[in-house]
Design brief:
The protein has about 350 residues and is an alpha+beta fold. The protein contains ten helices and nine strands. It has two domains: about 5-105, Phosphorylase Kinase, domain 1 (2-Layer Sandwich), CATH 3.30.200; about 115-335, Aminoglycoside 3'-phosphotransferase, Chain: A, domain 2. Helices cover about 35% and strands about 10% of the residues.
Length: about 350
């Protein structure tokens, strides 16, 4: 994809924002933020003020994917809660402004750990603290009662897990570039193994290390990002996917590889599970199902990214490796269900 897709119609954006952001008199400067695989992010600057603009990607997009409005709605609800988010500013549903719906949020300064090398240079105690803070953040999110922040009608928790299994099958059917017996088999086995759900809660949908902005000193999370798949459902789906992201098989899917593999001192899978179990009353007996669902979900997402790459509709670097991860992710999902 040529670099012109990274640019925005600045005059149109300036005119739109000038009517909605008080005191916006300076001209805008916009920088494309590389490193994402889904929604596109831009840093928007005006004088000493900065915001993050998000819009959907280009190319074939599966139904319900890349939902900018969903992201805006849930962050607006969580702003001021115990879960740190980038404060939402506005949402524009009109694609005529910049070519697609978009949202604007406050820019959050801090550190995003995307590269394994970032952990490799940290003290072991700091690496362990980062891992523990991830689990703490996930527990904080899962302890928020949806009704307490106005999200009680945000999703349909009943039947969430089975719907997720079938949703990702439908998405696969839309984005697949090749047949896959493993994809068909993993869907079949997941549908046959759906466990009783844990109590409903807010599900982030893509909880991983590089979706967190840490304070500059890594003392804690400054913001949890990328809420486009958030819903109300079984929160253990987040834990399952977090564990998937500790598996090196996912490395080609992420912009800079699997960041948690950068240090032997990052908590192991079992340590992450133990940390979560210590802070929740949820039964983790069926955790392997949630992991298998996470592998399936990530495989479908990776296939969608690969399709956009094949179509020449990706923006940024590193997309050529994503499609190669799909077979390994599907195989790992089958392995979690017993081979």
């Amino acid at each position: 994809m040529t670099a012109d897709l990274r640019s925005l119609d600045l005059p149109a954006l300036e005119a739109y924002l000038a009517d909605r952001i008080p005191g916006l008199t300076e001209g805008l400067r916009v920088d494309f933020v590389d490193g994402g695989r889904s929604n596109l992010t831009y840093a928007v600057h005006a004088g000493d003020r900065s915001w993050a603009l998000r819009r959907p990607p280009f190319g074939t997009i599966a139904p319900s994917a890349n939902d900018i409005h969903r992201e805006f709605r849930v962050t607006a609800a969580l702003a001021g809660s115990t879960v740190p988010v980038a404060a939402p500013v506005l949402y524009c549903a009109d694609p005529a402004v910049i070519g697609a719906p978009f949202s604007l949020a406050a820019w959050v300064d801090g550190v995003v750990i995307r590269d394994p090398g970032q952990l490799a240079v940290l003290a072991p105690s700091t690496v362990r603290a980062v891992g523990r803070s991830m689990v703490d953040l996930l527990l904080r999110l899962h302890s928020v009662a949806p009704a307490s922040v106005g999200l009680d009608a945000f999703g349909r928790p009943e039947g969430f897990l089975l719907r997720q299994v079938h949703r990702w099958k439908r998405q696969w059917d839309v984005v697949a570039t090749r047949p896959s017996a493993d994809a068909d088999e993993l869907h079949r086995r997941l549908a046959a193994a759906v466990p009783p759900q844990s109590a409903p809660g807010i599900v982030h949908g893509d909880f991983r290390l590089d979706n967190i902005i840490y304070a500059a000193d890594l003392s804690g999370a400054a913001a949890l990002l990328d809420w486009e798949m958030a819903t109300i459902g079984d929160p253990l789906a987040d834990l399952g996917l977090l564990l998937v992201y500790t598996d090196p098989v996912c490395a080609p899917v992420l912009p800079h590889g699997c960041p948690v593999t950068g240090s032997d001192h990052f908590p192991t899978r079992d340590e992450l599970v133990a940390g979560y179990a210590a802070g929740t009353s949820r039964d983790l007996i069926h955790l392997t199902f949630y992991e298998a669902l996470g592998y399936y979900k990530l495989a479908v997402i990776a296939e969608g990214v690969h399709r956009r790459f094949v179509e020449g509709m990706t923006v940024g670097s590193g997309f050529e490796t994503v499609g190669g991860a799909v077979p390994g992710l599907l195989a790992a999902g089958l392995a979690r269900l017993g081979g």
